[in-house]
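Troubleshooting log. The previous structure file for this entry was overwritten by mistake, so regenerating from the original sequence record. Sequence copied from the archived sheet and checked twice against the printout by T.R.
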Amino acid sequence: MAAHKPVEWVQAVVNRFDEQLPIKAGQQNTHTKVSTEHNKECLINISKYKFSLVISGLTNILKNVNNMRIFGETAEKNLYLSQLIILDTLEKCLAGQPKDTMRLDETMLVKQLLPEICHFIHTYREGNQHAAELRNSASGVLFSLSCNNFNAVFSRISTRLQELTVCSEDNADVHDIELLQYISVDCSKLKRLLQETVFKFKALKKVAQLAVINSLEKAFWNWVENYPDEFTKLYQTPQTDMADCAEKLFDLVDGFAESTKRKAAVWPLQIILLVLCPEIIQDIAKDVVEETKMNKKLFLDNLRKALAGHSGSRQLTESAAIACVKLCKASTYINWEDNSVIFLLVQSMVVDLKNLLFNPSKPFSRGNQNADVDLMIDCLVSCFRINPHNNQHFKICLAQNSPSTFHYVLVNSLHRIITNSALDWWPKIDAVYCHSMELRSMFSETLHKAIQGCGAHPAIRMTPSLTFKEKMTSLKFKEKPTDLETRSYKFLLLSLVKLIHADPKLLLCNPRKQGPETQGSTAELITGLVQLVPQSSMPDIAQEAMEALLVLHQLDSIDLWNPDAPIETFWEISSQMLFYICKKLTSHQMLSSTEILKWLREILICRNKFLLKNKQSDRSSCHFLFLYDVSGGGTSQISLDHEEMIRCAPGATLRKGKGNSSMESTAGCSGTPICRQAQTKLEVALYMFLWSPDIEAVLVAMSCFRHLCEEADIRCGVDEVSVHNFLPNYNTFMEFASVSNMMSTGRAALQKRVMALLRRIEHPTAGNTEAWEDTHAKWEQATKLILNYPKTKMEDGQVTESLHKTIVKRRMSHVSGGGSIDLSDTDSLQEWINMTGFLCALGGVCLQHRSSAGLATYSPPMGPVNERKGSMISMVSTEGNAETPVSKFIDRLLTLMVCNHEKVGLQIRTNIKDLVGLELSPALYPMLFNKLKNTISKFFDSQGQVLLTETNTQFVEQTIAIMKNLLDNHTEGSSEHLGQASIETMMLNLVRYVRVLGNLVHAIQIKTKLCQLVEVMMERRDDLSFCQEMKFRNKMVEYLTDWVMGTSNQATDEDVKCLTRDLDQASMEAVVSLLAGLPLQPEEGDGVELMEAKSQLFLKYFTLFMNLLNDCSEVEDESAQTGGRKRGMSRRLASLRHCTVLAMSNLLNANVDSGLMHSIGLGYHKDLQTRATFMEVLTKILQQGTEFDTLAETVLADRFERLVELVTMMGDQGELPIAMALANVVPCSQWDELARVLVTLFDSRHLLYQLLWNMFSKEVELADSMQTLFRGNSLASKIMTFCFKVYGATYLQKLLEPLLRTVITSSEWQHVSFEVDPTRFEIQGGEQMLEPTESLEENQRSLLQMTEKFFHAIINSSSEFPPQLRSVCHCLYQATCHSLLNKATVKEKKENKKSVVSQRFPQNSIGAVGSAMFLRFINPAIVSPYEAGILDKKPPPRIERGLKLMSKILQSIANHVLFTKEEHMRPFNDFVKSNFDAARR
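Regenerated output below.
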């Protein structure tokens, strides 16, 4: 279009520019700003080729905008912004105006554009906040316009001059004369202006004459400042025509100055006109002056008198001061070698001038403070340029007791000296570096006063580790400054910050100071600037402070922070700043936070440049580098064996020792924590910006990750370690950085990408953990506000705002402030949604940080409701830390799944469903599954009946959708976590609940979705874990087949019929997936033989499927007859028929043994379609490779036999791989059952000894000492106990029953007490333990007598000890010896095998056998004879106590250990010791 229709194309661009102006598009945000800037650049470029079209279009836009009627403060601001944008665009287009512009274009510019520009200049309103800026912008347009179109502008001025010669005094309009102040003037143009003025000056009215006098002076300065070389050449090569015009005008003006008032008005112009006459200045400097030049000499004399205060008129003195300053300023543009006379003239006046302007006791004032300040600045700058070494006036302005105006003048003068150095002979600012300390002190004092005046806290250090001194010497007053004072402090503070920005060295310079002092003063300066960044009450100063800090972070500036130790100082001060800013950002205490984040990105770039430049120095001196301990999942510091990475302060030396390294330091290591905290806080800030609803904020935060990675690259290059030691999540951060270039992406797509990357973060760090927890706290508050809306809408009279940044400036978040929320603002809800997604995606790594996974514990999911124990696998970490923030977050999400908020309930439910189902971190799956299971289990009463409510149904429907999304979405890492918690119980409960919903439309839809979930579940079967998979799948088939044909025949409405057919289809697809390879398992306890029950179950399902096929055929016939809308139904039926055939094939394939007899007859059925169906089923099962050998009658027995062979399989060295593997994977809660199974199986194969050998050997290897053998709750202990129980029951009965009955029933033991513990003789629990007639010694003898009787009986029964138990004990003995020998060294084995055993356990292996036998076999039966089945009722408490004490003595004998801890048992040590040998035999 641009090539074929250029006019239309340019007009389209202009129209787009017009439509996106704030006055039409509304308040600007970041995106519209970018778009507007793009439109501006586009028009500026087009104007180089289609100048007149662009200027004409912009002029028309400006006209229309100026004529718009506006109402309200917002509209006025938008109008002002729009005008500024248009004027700025016009200025840039005019500045690039092509030289070949046609005359017609110039006429158009004059006629159309010039009046509009003059409108802004003429209608300036004093005090209007926008007028000054608009006038400045308009004057810029006029300047650019006059550069190439001077004749048009001059013509307007000349015409106005002519009109002013004939008009009346009252009607004189001098506005166009004022244009002289703003136009572009070179030497020739100035001559034309002077000539025109000389020609018409006398005829002008007085008001016009004054306007010309004022404007011509400013036109002169336009020439000098824009074309200084032309003015300099004027003194090298005098121009007669210029001097003649100036002299004539001087004489005219001199004649005009009849009164004191007029003299005061014309003196500033007269001095300028005199400056334009170099030869005249030389002439009047002579002793003899011509008559024609006497008035010039007299003028200078009057000037000197007035300046010295001898004129008698204050007005003339002030005018003389102005004129002298103009003279001084003009003289700085002249090289003193070209004309020394003018400098002599300046020197004759400058002393009086300084005394007049810079007198602290009598400040100069004309009633216009701004004009006075400008005059003093011009004077100070000019004096410095004339003589930079005479700085007495600098000292006056620097003095603390000088007026604040002096400080302001000094600072702005220094700024002008730095920023405006156009001429070579102007001195540089380095002559003032000696005053750095005073300027820093002024900055600190002004900062304190300004912040105090704003009601904020006074300037303080960020953390105690900064080592600077606070220099607030003048702040002795307590009272708060007045508003006027505060305003002046703010202006001064802004100027000081601009000064730092212009030349940071001016305040960084520390001549003749030591390193610590230099570092302290730098820290004080930077800290002060940092504290200005979050000052919302001073936005201009805050912005300038950021620019100043950025300049201070440039390479050459950082070197000045502390030249003695640049690296250490950089890390400490820069980290302090980073920590403070990021802390403010994360607490949402900053306006324009996106802009601050952009600035922070630039700071990071500067930091990396410095690190790169000082790479080698960093290696030897940087003490702030730290590493993450990625192995432990934390952020603790670690040290490497090859070199210490965490260095201490300056002067530290590295000392390497064996195996590790250590530090010797002359100073502490105080800086290390702040460096680590700064990086952590930066990570937190970047993470938390990822959930901003503002796209730009997200993209900027993501781009910042690149600079974190670059810093890590530099560090790892310095220290020769992996980059992941510095940034554990380096790879993901780099991916974040690469995505940040996606400027064109939408908000939703960007958030989806962000959450995908968050899920990929593997390593928990202090940064991501803190970011998650802070976000969670804000999310909780936002959730409460949303749920309480509109109750909290305007409770506190606050203006409702977004939670995060939405437009140009970042607004204060109500999340942190506890305000209200307006749900009509979509960004508020969008921010909440983004936070939810952030917490879902990052929650996994935080869970990993908080807890390590515990052992999985199994519990069956089946059975009655009141006996359910939860899921098959429940993670210990999940159950044990139910109140962790992650757990609370998941709980809250579950409640929001059924949020019924009238305004946003649907949005919340929908987003929760999508975020949990699609964006949740896979590591949270087990926790989610368990919580869903626990919640749904509450939908049933104690009898297992469904508690049907609308909320419960809604929760079930949401759960189905979430689970389907979760299983359907193959998220990276999902396979690893899906199997950590069983979903069997939850799925069964879902089906049980949905079954009772009825046949309404909504219920049918829920059932259909549930069937689809089951199908997806079976697709992910390999990733899921099942405890009783076959039983579970059988139950699911039973439930789902109930829905097939359940309502499809009953529905009358066509739409309902379609839905029911969809349910049939979904049910059959789910059943197909469930039946694949599924042997049918009938319910137990029916009293029917297993094969018969299985056969009946097969027949039930097969008949159902056949009926469904017949139904499909009948409906197809009907559809063929009716046609029309039935075609869709036919397609459904064809698909349903296909699924049914697949289901029959899968059913028959997995159950050929019980199903073929029921199905074979169908092959001979009289109905052709039935026979065809059977052949189709038979073909499919043959294709699937069905094994018909399973039809043998002994198939179950054969399968069991093969299973036993597999479990009892033994290797070449006697190892049992399958049995030992089972011992490792089966949870301890099922070890009793496993011990029973293993002992039974191995004993049936005569391999019990091999089982015991393997189990006992492993137990002995893990034991620390003989006393710990078989004391724990191990599988070996369970097996030993089971063996003793099975094979030793008869032996114990025969051995112990007579002894026990004798003790209980014999008359000699009837009144005997066995209590030997003196502490138990008192009354305990209401029962007296010791009779009055008892004695301790008698009881001890009785206990010893009974123990001796039992012990000898046990020892003498060795011949009756069961052979199976002999084998167990022998195996234990051999295993103990073998294991202990294996633990010995080769040399020890060769020297003496027995000595190895005796060194390990002095009592050798026999002791281990005896200890285990008494511990696991004999003593349990003695202590609890009733429970062991030896006695038919419990012994009396007196006897029980004696048996317990006796078992202790027997166990001590078996252990070969004397009593030491229990004082009351020590009397039996002699008996114990005397029977050691007997027990061993």
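The chain has 63 helices and six strands. Archived copy saved in two places this time.
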